[in-house]
Amino acid sequence: MFPAKLPGNGIFDEMLLADGQVREHYASYWSWLNKRPLEEMERKRREAELLFHRVGITFAVYGESSGTERLIPFDSLPRVIPAQEWGWLENGIRQRVQALNMFLHDIYHDQNILKAGRIPPEQIFGNAHYQPCMQDVDLPNDVYAQISGVDLIRDDKGDWYVLEDNLRTPSGVSYMIENRRMMMRLFPELFSGNSVAPVDHYPSLLLETLQQGSNVSHPNVVLLTPGRYNSAYFEHAFLAQQMGIELVEGPDLFVKDSHVYMRTTAGPQQVDVIYRRIDDDYLDPLAFRQDSMLGVPGLLSVYREGNVSIANAIGTGVADDKSVYPYVPEMIRFYLDEEPMLKNVPTWQCRDASNLSYVLDHLAELVVKEVHGAGGYGMLVGPLSTKEQISQFRDRLIARPDNYIAQPTLSLSTCPIFAESGIAPRHIDLRPFVLSGREIRMAPGGLTRVAMQEGSLVVNSSQGGGTKDTWVLEEPSC
Amino acid sequence: MLSRTAAELYWLSRYLERAENTARMLDVAWNMSLIPFSVTARDELSTPLAISGAKELYMERYGTLQVHNVLHFLTLDRDNPGSIFNSLRMARENAHAVRGKITSEMWESINTTWIELQEMSRAGLLSIGVSAFFDWVKQRSHLFRGAAYGTIMRNDAFRFLRIGTFIERADNTARILGGREQVSGSPGNTAVEFYRWNALLRSVGAFEAYREIYSDALQFENIVELLILRGEVPRSLRSCVEMLCELLPAIEGNAGLNAKREVTVLFARLQYGDMRHIMDVGVNDYLDDFLRRINDLANTLGKEYLEVV
């Protein structure tokens, strides 16, 4: 029998109840695990590592010598979500993403939500991700974010919260798929005994979604990558291959006579849909950053004429910014006339003087984040920081309060992992991937990210976070 | 197919072939260095240096040809762009850029090669064993080619991979043969001559083929015929160009008129080649002309397929 530890401090654990009993939806896995010798699990762990290395499922780390590739730590103890709970989550996510897309359409058309006074206009027009060039551009199905990743966490009661909405170029879905493939390879018997909802069809859903974003009947879809030194290059290559589309870099594309073409061995070939994994700023050196070598000169004008589709649309960042995040529940009420199912984490906007003074007084208990930050960079986790770190951060905060928001330090639920010391709880989050075409679709579950260090709350892979397989589990029929 | 993808596939296999060729040449040089004919050994050492284009860099650094220096310089030296280490690194980098266009078996093969190479580089050539290292390089090259033959679709990706292989191989064979003739005096039957020709044939893996086809003592003229005109020998100029002549017209689309014409002319010159003509022109001049043509072909191919505007 493996000893399983509770996280303590009243933190919610995905597998264990507060009294240490195993939750019902983990019962089958737990009894299977307890028939396995510890050496076998250790052997499987090494096997997985070897396979990930050989297959090259790695990511490049910024700031380390170029070409440095690292594995994202993979933990083979699955995170299990009962089907019923997932069904509820799915509805909540669908509601949220629908409202976000309606918000983007509104912002780039009539701006009714601003006129109604539900969001202060300066939050939008002062936002670096707001793109005036998108005003009155009509998009197929009125969809702006075809692909979104909604980060979810659970507090000490097990209640779900949205931590952030990723509407630009969310990544990680390749790990969701590869983690499942790895689990099926390592432990095939687990999958015959449990009805785990499959995720392998995600690439075909993605391709359909991209095709629905075009007015052309059999559109030529390509994936635009910044190139092989990008941290998510593995994912770009993986998705292009799984969808059977070309993986292109900026210099492979050119604009001629109001259309986009790619350079092929048989001459120029027209491109209809670009699934871009490049930020807005780098897409078109004629319209945005002139020094960009990654983009395609003239792309924006072709896009505005409707002769090419870009997923996600230009300017979606205005809706997933941390300073706009507090208004998402209001968007749901405004556009859908519904109450939000998923909760927002309470957020203090440091640009507001009274909020700022509260934040400065409570730095030691709050999490402070850059408004435009991502990847776990440039943030302060008060309870886990030294006095010196806090005082340095205080200076930065006072210098540019509008650049920061603050939230209470949520406990984040834990899930057991195979650690050096045996089975031990670690904090996790969940990123489901949401596809919006003519309708909204999701692969069940998503990517569970794990803070591999004991007590750590930072799950980002750039900060040493790992991942595990996520099971949406149907109730056993017998 | 994207032009950039085609270029990366083409260079992937050129670099891999280059690594294999360097290993073949060095393997022979290493064996020769164990035989007490110093002149021949030096000859064997300078050929791979000259072909890799790094002779000047080497002389700058070491001054004299020493077996162990040359071996290190051309195998695991990270600072020599022509080393096997860097050829395999480039092959793997190109594969990384097109990993969606090659099969997972091919990718895993070349990626494993790269992972093992880094370990070997840390261990050093002597602790691995010189011959063992060359065997490993050849085997990794065979393995990748086998994975490619066994798993990839017969499409333009496959064709550009093979085109890279045969351009590099033809270039290599021509240089090995040309490099040797200059040093050689009149052919004779001395032991030195025997080892010289033996080494030449072994470095293109054609010693057994010679024995089987000619069942005769090693003679320069036969060797020239074998490596230029014989279609049965996989590393002969004729074999390489014959493959190119099949591959280029099979590429989809109507591009590449000039490349197709050039390769057809070049193949006709070999298919209907005449030993008397070659000996009249002089083997070196004939090979210089061939090298110019094959490099022209590579340039034309580059312009018409790989960097299309």
Question: Given the helix and strand composition of chain A, which structural class is it?
Answer: alpha+beta
* Number of beta-strand segments of chain B: 0
**pLDDT below 50 for ≥5 consecutive residues: which ranges of chain B?**
182-186
- Major beta-sheet overview of chain A: 5 strands, mixed
Order of helices and strands of chain B: HHHHHHHHHHHHHHHH
Number of helices of chain A: 14
Main interface by residue count: A-B, 23 and 30 residues
**Main β-sheet description of chain B:** none
What percent strand of chain A? 15-25%
Oligomer: heterodimer
Q: State the helical fraction of chain A.
A: 25-40%
What count of helical segments of chain B does DSSP give?
16
Rounded Rg of chain B: 19 Å
Q: Uncertain runs of chain A with pLDDT below 50, 5 residues or more?
A: none
Number of strands of chain A: 23
Overall tally of structural domains of chain B: 2
Percent of residues in β-strands of chain B: under 5%
Overall pLDDT score of chain A: 91
What topology emerges from the helices and strands here?
The complex is a heterodimer of chains A (478) and B (309).
Chain A: H1 27-33, H2 38-55, E1 58-60, E2 69-71, E3 74-82, H3 83-107, H4 112-115, H5 121-125, E4 147-154, E5 160-166, H6 173-186, H7 188-193, H8 202-212, E6 221-224, H9 233-243, E7 246-248, E8 253-256, E9 259-264, E10 267-271, E11 273-276, H10 299-304, E12 309-311, H11 317-320, H12 328-336, E13 343-344, E14 348-349, H13 353-361, E15 366-370, E16 380-381, H14 387-399, E17 404-408, E18 414-419, E19 422-431, E20 433-436, E21 440-442, E22 447-450, E23 466-473
Parallel strand pairs in A: 3-23, 5-13, 6-7, 6-11, 11-12
Antiparallel strand pairs in A: 1-2, 4-5, 4-20, 8-9, 9-10, 14-17, 15-16, 15-17, 18-19, 19-22, 20-21, 22-23
Helix pairs in contact in A: 3-12
Chain B: H1 3-33, H2 38-52, H3 55-62, H4 67-74, H5 84-97, H6 104-123, H7 125-128, H8 130-151, H9 156-183, H10 191-203, H11 207-214, H12 220-228, H13 237-250, H14 257-271, H15 275-281, H16 283-306
Helix pairs in contact in B: 1-2, 1-5, 1-8, 1-9, 1-10, 2-9, 5-6, 6-8, 9-13, 9-16, 13-14, 14-16, 15-16
